[in-house]
Amino acid sequence: MIKGSKILITGGTGSLGYGLTKALHLDNRIVIYCRNEERQYEMKQHFKNDNIVFRIGDIRDQDTLEMALTGCDLAIHAAAMKDLIMCEEQPTQTFYNNIEGSKSFISAVKRSKIRKAVAVSTDKAASPSSVYGASKYIMEKLFAEANTYSETIFSSVRFGNMIDSRGSLIAQWKRNPNDSIRLSHNEVARFFFTVKEGAETVLEALEKSQGGEIFIRKMKRARISDVLSVITK
Hints:
There is one protein chain. The longest helix has 22 residues, at 91-112. Strand 1 (6-10), helix 1 (15-24) and strand 2 (29-34) form a beta-alpha-beta unit. By secondary structure, this protein is an alpha/beta fold. Helix 1 packs across helix 8. Helices cover 43% and strands 21% of the residues. The strands form 2 sheets. A 7-stranded parallel β-sheet has the order 3-2-1-4-5-6-9, sandwiched between helices. It has a 3-stranded mixed β-sheet with strand order 7-8-10. It has helices at residues 15-24, 37-47, 62-68, 84-89, 91-112, 131-145, 169-175, 195-208, 224-231, and strands at residues 6-10, 29-34, 52-56, 74-77, 116-122, 153-159, 161-162, 189-193, 214-216, 220-223.
């Protein structure tokens, strides 16, 4: 189903985009769509593969997104504001990117007659208590609703904490191990997975989705105090 396809990835220069491109680019054609020119240049130098095409564009720009989707069979929507603090401080921008941007993506995908589209969500969308979680909860609902009167199959995947992603707390702790960190409780824990596992989950959703599902990978649980003790050794 996936092999031999042309696949667009929004927000494709992020950690997950790298993981997906690594898993896909030998057997498929990839379109990396994002608005960050510098990261696109870095990624192009990293892969140096003619099967990967880079397109500058905002997910809210439907005309540009539709042009990038030309000839594509599948689409992965990974573009979003993800920083919890920034989302709390700038809820308007979070709305524009995570909700309006997702709505724009769905419309462009429908008009482009893509076979399947998968959105990348978060476990924070479950009973959301933050702006970020709430925006992703609404995104999931938009993707589920998009299956109504559509030839495209829409689904979502929920992630926990991507342990080795760019900008993650663990990555920051590795860079600054002497920073003062206060835990709210010694038993506080998070669910973790790797970039490779994240890419595998998205690809599994592309293979198996029938429309409207939310795929959730079983993740490993770890106490933050244990993670810190390993990092700061």
